[in-house]
Amino acid sequence: MTLPLFAPFDDPGPDFASLLRRTHPDRRQPAAAAPSGSLDVRHGTTVVALRFADGVVMAGDRRATEGHTIAHRTMEKVFPADRHSAVAIAGAAGPAVEMVRLFQTQLEHYEKVEGVALSLEGKANQLGQMVREHLPMAMQGLAVVPLFAGYDIGRGIGRIFNYDVTGGHYEETEHSATGSGGRDARTTIKLGYRDGMARDDAVELAIEALYEAADEDSATGGPDLVRGIYPLVATVTAEGFDPVAEDEVAARFAALIDRRRAEGRRP
Amino acid sequence: MTMPYYVAPEQVMKDRAEYAQKGIARGRSLIATTFEGGVVIVADNPSRSLHKISEIYDRIAFAGVGKYNEFDQLRVSGVRHADTKGYAYSREDVDARSLANLYAQYLGQVFTHEMKPLEVEILVAELGNELRRTQLYHVAYEGTITDEDRFAVLGGETEVISERMRDAWRSDWALRDALAAAVAALAGPERTLAGEGLEVAVLERGNGRRCFRRLSATEVDELLG
Which of B54, B73, B83 sits opposite A16 (nearest CB)? Predict the structure, then answer.
């Protein structure tokens, strides 16, 4: 290994992805080499994000499927992107996790090289470029669709961006959900969403949305009371990324089920 | 055709060393020392934006004295090295020793083969964990590398400052004491330095994954009491 030094006219700047292309040309995924046709790769998912008074809540189920079988029960789909933002993934698990790793490194790399963090919109654009570069793989059936949310320090609000497979990204003013169970989750959030919700209400709503999605979608995992596996929930506020403790998530699911039983509805 | 003059290699090296030393001595000095919670780095630097101390990786910090453009280029290449290594392997595989060696090789190469040596001295500090111990690597302009586990002084007048620091140094002292001693050693008997004229950063445990943190001028003044 040698020190990665570049002449001033030839410098890759604070962009980690282009640095990687220069120093490790073989590490980038060979998009054209992917076999065509349908592959049994791991897919997800339901991930949701919604705004509340102090920022955003993001949550995702834990199930990964390969075709009709459950491939993994404890997969993590909600990640801190940096101190003030979070990214959640839906789609082919392998490339999605790799994309998150590259994205996390990219944000931190920029911050260290430049001495200042990217703006929230800058981060959203960066992720969009990564999704766009992934388009050839998406055409082969390995689509990755992330959801990005964070706290905009300059504006003092939480913001949410959702993506399509071409890297197009669109800001959502209230909430968003993606993945195979996204539609069901969205319906639940739409019914319960209020402007300026408190943190607890927002976490509760995200949990309820995942619960409903898991009820309708086979590729979304609900709370696994037998094994003690629960969806991941995190908040992003001015204080930064903060995962909600598993105990709290478990307690909220238990309360949700009890409440429904008491009301005479199906749990 | 004129014949080039013969210059003895000893003379060439001596001239280059003198040139580099002069360049470094013109700048202000810097001290890094261990304390009970990690490593604190203190630089005599009135600028708020042109940093001498920076973050390289989760547990690794960089500090440089001498020509700003030269050590800043080394800093950026260190960040690039660490981030690519951490991405290709894993975060725990990134260590200060291999980075310090790369710096030493590069500085040595430039010193012997280029017209002009780099007028810099750099420090690579690593906060220890279960895998590695806390270490300060000091790399000189000609590529000499030394490892310290107590403190390191970079820049001009290192002899005098080291002397003052050696007398004051205690193992496992509090941040407040380490900072006060480093500031006193940098300032000497005739000057006093306060938060505004200092750049201070720490690598400390309990900050989460990224252990590097800058201390604001007010925070420094509070600690100096």
Answer: B83
Q: Is residue B4 part of a domain?
A: no
B19 occurs within a structural domain:
yes
User: Mean pLDDT for chain A?
Assistant: 90
Boundaries of every domain in chain A? 42-262
Considering CB atoms only, which of A4, A27, A101 is closest to B81? Answer: A4
CA angle in degrees (0–180, nearest 5) for B41-A115-B49: 70
User: What confidence score (pLDDT) does residue A39 get?
Assistant: 54
Check residue A193 and give its pLDDT.
Answer: 95
- Beta-bridged to residue B147, according to DSSP, are B137
Q: What is the pLDDT of residue B196?
A: 87
Measured in degrees and rounded to the nearest 5, phi and psi for residue B67 equal: -75, 125
The reply to whether residue A4 touches residue B84, judged by beta carbons under 8 angstroms, is yes
Q: Is B192's pLDDT higher than 90?
A: no
CA pair distance A145, A89, nearest whole angstrom: 6
The CATH number assigned to the domain holding B26 equals: 3.60.20.10
- Could you say which of B49, B73, B79 has the minimum Cβ distance to residue A112? B79
Give how far Cα B177 sits from Cα of A72, B184, B193, Å.
Answer: 52, 11, 15
- Judge whether A242 and A236 are in contact, CB under 8 Å: yes
Q: What is the pLDDT of residue A43?
A: 67
Quote the pTM value: 0.92
Residue A67 confidence (pLDDT) above 90: no
Identify the residue whose tokens are 């020793």: B97
Right CATH for A42-262 from 3.30.360.10, 3.10.129.10, 2.40.320.10, 3.60.20.10: 3.60.20.10
With pLDDT > 70 as the criterion, what percentage of chain B qualifies?
Answer: 100
Minimum Cα–Cα distance from B49: chain A residue: A115
Domain interval for residue B191: 9-224
Q: Best of B70, B80, B102 to disrupt the A interface by mutation (most A CBs within 10 Å)? A: B80
Question: For residue B102, is it within any domain?
Answer: yes
Q: Domains in chain B: how many in total? A: 1
Residue numbers of A annotated as active site: 45
Contacts of residue A105 in chain B, CB cutoff 8 Å? Answer: 83, 86-87
Q: How far apart are CA A175 and CA A51, in angstroms?
A: 6
**Tokens coding A85:** 């933002």
Chain A: closest CA distance from residue B212 (Å): 11
Domain membership of residue B3 (yes or no) is: no
The pLDDT of residue A32 is 47
Q: How far apart are the first and last CA of chain B?
A: 70
Q: Which of B58, B76, B120 to mutate to test the interface with A (most CBs of A within 10 A)?
A: B76
| Cβ–Cβ below 8 Å for B77 and A4 | yes
